[in-house]
Design a protein that fits this description.
Two copies of one chain form a homodimer.
Chain A: H1 13-29, H2 32-40, E1 46-47, H3 48-54, H4 60-72, E2 76-81, E3 87-92, H5 94-129
Antiparallel strand pairs in A: 1-3, 2-3
Chain A binds a DNA duplex through helix 4.
Protein name (chains A, B): Helix-turn-helix transcriptional regulator
InterPro entries (chains A, B): HTH_HxlR (IPR002577), WH-like_DNA-bd_sf (IPR036388), WH_DNA-bd_sf (IPR036390)
Organism (chains A, B): Streptomyces spiramenti
DNA sequence: CGGTATCCGACGAGATACTG
DNA sequence: CAGTATCTCGTCGGATACCG
């Protein structure tokens, strides 16, 4: 995606279509709730409420919505156990697992550069306001 | 970050603060424009208008805004050449380069699973509407 | 417990116009 | 060319309430 193609050949309508789809998928996955959910689902399979507890700050609604998206894109697998009370479990599919490696990288990056960023912000803010 | 800590020790206020900061940074970076910009800036240094052309679909405003954020967090370096007409160049800092690897991973993932996802969507949509 | 629907405020983001 | 400001509108996202 974004395979630096400044002047694309007008002929490959197929590639442009695939590219626009790629863009949409990328945008769908490049959002905090989706990535956070994937990160939390990394190794275990969790239930709806457990997920909400693990991912701090996500609302009931956004959790359901994001899970729907991830399910639709085949990143998480939704298993309903026909019992009462209902028991629904979520786990990563192979595609989700593949993405998870990337997410881990982003989390690691955040940890590594936390201080660096905090200081960069101080510099930026002072050299602007001052 | 999100180092599965269901019941955190109430004593380490420091860790919770760092964690909330980490969350904010993660969320700031986990958005399509930021990631797309980082991806485009991967190997070369680009000017404002060049960036806008490379990242298709981004508005003048969002480009400026996102660049400000990235600059503030020390991910991109902004160099102003005092000439006329103005020439401002953007390049990744070391922190940005480090994050870039992750972004590359996400782009690669998107390419790899494009077909997989497209089919998953068809299945999902049909087994729902049907 | 898991999920959807509705209402409503806040913010994201485009268009436009203006400065240096 | 690079950047900011304003205005506007659409969407995101939270709270709440209600079904299975």
């Amino acid at each position: 995606m974004v395979t630096d193609n400044p002047a694309r050949d007008p002929a490959d309508t197929d590639l442009t279509r695939a590219d626009s789809l790629a863009r949409e998928i990328f945008a769908g996955v490049a959002n905090k709730w989706a990535l956070l959910l994937i990160n939390v689902l990394a190794d275990r399979t969790l239930r709806f409420t457990e997920l909400q507890k693990q991912v701090g700050g996500i609302s009931h609604k956004m959790l359901a919505q994001t899970l729907r998206h991830l399910e639709r894109d085949g990143l998480v697998d939704r298993t309903v156990h026909p019992v009462v009370p209902p028991r629904v479990e979520y786990r990563l599919t192979e595609a989700g697992q593949a993405l998870r490696a990337t997410v881990n990288g982003m989390c690691a990056w955040t940890r590594t550069y936390l201080d660096h960023i905090e200081e960069a912000r101080r510099r930026f803010d002072s050299t602007r306001a001052g």
